[in-house]
Amino acid sequence: MEFTNSYVSKVFKNMTDAVIGIDKLGNVVIINEAAKKIFGFETVKKKKVEDFILSIKLNIVLETGKEELENNFIYNGRKFVLNKIPVFKDKKIEGAIALFREVTDYSKLIKIIEEDKVHLEILNTILDVLNERVVVVDEKGIITMMSKAYKEFINNPNPEGKHVTEVIENTRMHIILKTGVMEIGEIQEVQGNKMVAMRIPIKKNGKVIGAVGKVMFKDVSDLVTLTNKVNRLEQELEYYKSELNKERTTKYSFKDIIGRSASIQAVKELAMKVAKTDSNILITGESGTGKELFAHAIHNASKRYLGPFIRINCAAIPEELLESELFGYEEGAFTGARKGGRKGKFELANGGTILLDEIGDMPIRMQAKLLRVLQEKEIERLGGNIVRNIDIRIIASTNKNLEMLVKQGLFREDLYFRLNVMPIKIPSLRERKEDISILTKKLLVKVSNRLGKYVEGISNDAIKYLESYDWPGNIRELENVIERAVNLLDADLIIKPEHLPEKITKNKAKKYIYEKKSLKNMIEEIEKEIILECLEKNDWNKNKVAKILGISRVGLYKKIERYNLNKAH
């Protein structure tokens, strides 16, 4: 064959591309060094080479006499372009040659270049959309890229290819290339505008190969505005954290429950014992008796005291919102649902205690769902299908008669029994009137501190009026009365009967009826109070008071001495 002569063989031998040639009988007559290395023909074995010839189908070229060009061929993960060419002599086919040109690295390079182009386009698009002012320079300070916003700012549509000092006023990009040290938060004046910039060197193998510059704030005033906004947000965050902690922690313990009466002491002892258990509790009592205070104290004295304490008022939340408040919801559960969903009160209370205040006002539909929580100790968020196990203790409170509501069909009997495992009834203030004096003095300190007013105390007469009142609003009403009195004080720093509401003082004799004193004692008490009140209203002018009361001055002096009346009374 012509292509097997010495000259042609030398050419094939020294080619970097792999070459394999066969004669018209299909025998391998040429296989150069590149082919041996690529395909593993270091020691040419006839059988192995013939198998390879069959795999590349070079024999077909002998049959057809047609060349096959630019075929893709993959061998051991390496990619080649395969050209199969017939060899003719006197128009008769004499053999065929297969030429293999490896394009693995070339393909990788093309792919990298294409990916880089895509990434560059994405970067440019992002910068343009975000209106960012960014510039990139090479190791010589030549601009290789600049965002559209920066070009518009400096009014230069084609800055690429120019040195950065020719394009950007007061730039330090060329200095960064020399020092290799980043600069962040530097003020730079461009066209009379003071902006805040950052400059970062680009390094490869420890060598600076370029730098990136970015305008952080387009004007110094923007930085001031942002700083103020961040400060406000931090303050808001601290406030909400504080409020959340208040919401999830208890504020009171049994020490805060004031009273020496037998009734309140008995309830405190019962509550302390109940606190050590993990059973559900139902606290009943009139409005303002301190049911929530007892719930706080019970949680604080329980083994769950380190867990959260969550309170929800069942009467204050509309029925359509109560379910999502208690159980939470998944994203998209309803129009306006928060992205990512939201935990409900039951989940927030996990590991701790939940107080269901005003449980008697809970809608029947929600009562059924609550019953399942009590029975199964599991919940499902609104719009979700994931069952979540919870570990909570339930304390329910109400000022309503649940037994009566059960009879009326307004409260589920099975739920009532579930909640009423450990019942605690808080006595009303009229049932513990001996505690009014100590409660008043305690509340007086609390109110005066809250209002920022100094108060020396409360007179005994004012206390007696308070003790004679029925207190339908209980301790809450007592606190309101004290706050009113403190606000009415002027130079006088002691709360007196005139500082109390008329509904408490309108019947002067009423307070004595409950004391079960003799008629003589009651008359003396009334006389004492009338004389003292007249003296105080007339600045202790005894002559004037004696005339007003229709008694002699000597008689007035005797009564003042008898009743031990004085200005400091």
- How would you classify the helix and strand content by structural class? alpha/beta
Strand content: 15-25%
Uncertain spans, ≥5 residues at pLDDT below 50? 509-514
Give me the number of helical elements. 24
Q: Describe the biggest sheet?
A: 5 strands, antiparallel
What's the β-strand tally? 21
As for the CATH topology of the largest domain, it is Rossmann fold
Question: What is the terminal separation in angstroms?
Answer: 140 Å
Structural commentary:
The chain has 569 residues and is α/β, with parallel strands linked by helices. The chain folds into five domains: 2-102, Beta-Lactamase (2-Layer Sandwich), CATH 3.30.450; 133-217, Beta-Lactamase (2-Layer Sandwich); 249-427, Rossmann fold (3-Layer(aba) Sandwich); 430-504, Helicase, Ruva Protein, domain 3 (Orthogonal Bundle), CATH 1.10.8.60; 517-569, Arc Repressor Mutant, subunit A. The protein contains 24 helices and 21 strands. A five-stranded antiparallel beta sheet has the order 2-1-5-4-3. A five-stranded antiparallel beta sheet has the order 7-6-10-9-8. Helix 10 packs across helix 11, helix 17 packs across helix 19 and helix 23 crosses helix 24 (553-562). It is elongated. The protein starts with 5 loop residues before the first helix and ends in a 7-residue tail after the last helix. Mean pLDDT is 82; it is low at 509-514.
